Batch of 3 targets.
Target 1
Amino acid sequence: MAREKDNERYAYLYGVGSYWMAFEHSAYQLRRLFPQSETSIIRFVTYPFPVVMAAVSDAELYAYSRRHILRVTAPDRRVLTTEKLPVERYREWHRAEVEELA
């Protein structure tokens, strides 16, 4: 979560099985790149606010990576460079996701 606090230019993705997960700012950026990606709300005992997570399949990310250069390609982590985060739109999106999925 600390990485997401000031994240304005990247989508940090974490591999889980055949999916790639992103959280908070990265989740918003992922949704901008993959409008059909799925979202979920996660609540951590040690974190006071609901966290929005977005996910895309490995096949979708692979297809994307054939047309775009990924910033980082580690076995369990990918980093995509994105357009600058529009903070107000992110806040609106986050609020709507939490209300819809909570």
Target 2
Amino acid sequence: MSNTRELPLLDTADDAVTACCPPLTERPFTAQEAEVAARMFKALGDPVRLRLFSAVASHEGGEACVCDISDVGVSQPTVSFHLKKLKDAGLLTSERRGTWVYYRVEPSVLAAMGKLLTIAPAAA
């Protein structure tokens, strides 16, 4: 019996993206918006985590087995720690398949982060 399943594609069109926060240039953040944005950027602020995130994001099919991305110059327990931090920040999702865990980048979160960093259009 196979433990694999087809994952649904997420719609990343502008209307489907739930942004955590408005663009930085639109208005000051609320305390809650700042918390959410800071958690995401803090998770990416570590070089090992950024390398792991990049490895998952650039892996064929948009997902990677932990066995394929663990060569970042730290021990396996440290890799697991950093992947957990990325997952806790909402940047990755994971799925266990047998003895391995597969990680996938959350496209909607990337789109929301992109919107956060764009310049808001000038008021007409």
Target 3
Amino acid sequence: MRSWGTLTAICLGTFMLLLDVTIVVVALPDMTGSLHASLGDLQWVVDGYALALAALLLGAGAAADILGRRRVHVVGVVLFALASLLCGLASDPGLLVAARALQGVGGAAMFATTLPLLGSVYQGRQRSAALGVWGAVSGGAAAVGPVLGGLITEGPGWRWIFFVNLPVSVVAVWLTLRSVPESRGPRGMSVDWAGTAAFAVFAGGATYAVVRAGEDGWTAPATLVSFAVAALAVVVFALVERRVAHPLLDLSLLRRPAFVGTMLGAFAFNGVAFGAIPYLSIWMQTLLGMSPVRGGLTLLPMTVMSMVVAVLVGRLLHGVPARLTVGGGLLLVGAGTLCQAVLGAGSDWTALVPGFVLVGAGTGFVAPTVAGAALASVPAERAGMAGGAVNTVRQLGYALGVAVVGTVVTSRMTGRLPEDAAHALAGGGAGALLRDGVPEHSLRAAFASGLNGALVVTGLAGLVAGALVMVLVRPGRPAPGKAPGKAPGTEAPEAAPEKAAAGG
């Protein structure tokens, strides 16, 4: 390897930003007690980060092509470190949510530049080796997140989940400045700021509307206004993308069934596979009495299975059509999610293991292949755009998945408990309800009912998405010819696949 410094610097940043997607999951009950957080607060602790990452990823990539990818990456790491410090010092839920969103902004700047920077340094076999190491680090971050979060939460406390990012960030910045050369995209590019803003309003409005629906109802004024704002933002986004010279998303790609199918599959994948994990963690810790470490370890059947299957897919299924790997993987994820919907008042975590194994197997099929499917569905000059889009919809799918699961969980529990008690229980407030005299059996039955309802909804969504991918993603060569306007973040043909391969 020509320069281990470059690879180490990029992998450190990638590990941090992907780790922070999942590391907070097992710390949510402790955050509830420490900050007196509500269910809505907990949802935004998870979603604030994912939404900022999704909303700004494409725009950050376009800005980096103009301003310099190393410069934007370093700014992202510094911003991420500052936000991590603010997260650890937060004294109330609002400050924590705001700091998590700021983390997402820094994460977007880092994530948008990781693979282009690797592509500018490594060529040929060195590039393949570098991407293999980077992919292993990315998968490892997701796998160790819940376990590491449990260890830190049970040890020095949940605030150290964020404080540990500070020394890692210092090393990452030093290595980046020392070892990573500056690179830029083609000249004459411009950043579609209007499109970036419109997409951010849509993503935030849609997620906020779903969260409000869980708290106030689907017909409440705040819910309807939020949905209306999101719908208007989509229209504005479409109008902007049709008129700017360098759009974030070339809308003509939406006429390609394979591209649409891949985007639907990527969007559903993160929401279905991982959207219920925060609430399962709350259930296991507050009602089953598990420690944060044990709560994190219960996810190992899923993470280990996903890593094993991903390795086998890479070695044995090279060249298998994406409609089978992505579509079939989504069918496994949907089936595994449905298999988890068997909880009752007397259930323990082992009831989830068969479903976890199936979801892990499906994840092992989808995660390594969905970016390649997006790349194969567009012309070569749109490869960078397709790679950015698939990463964006994955993060947006996760944010909306968490919001939808929370809404379904509380709505189902409201039929068994008073509304305020249902919200308190879903937010990890089982201890207070027990002290108020609510029978433990009633709490366990209500939470199990809520989880079952949410798992059925998301499981069915996974099956539908898998079927749509199987229908829409058909083999075929993209039509020749260059689409009007060069895409922001589009690389030379050799570098484009690497940018498209990023996962979330």
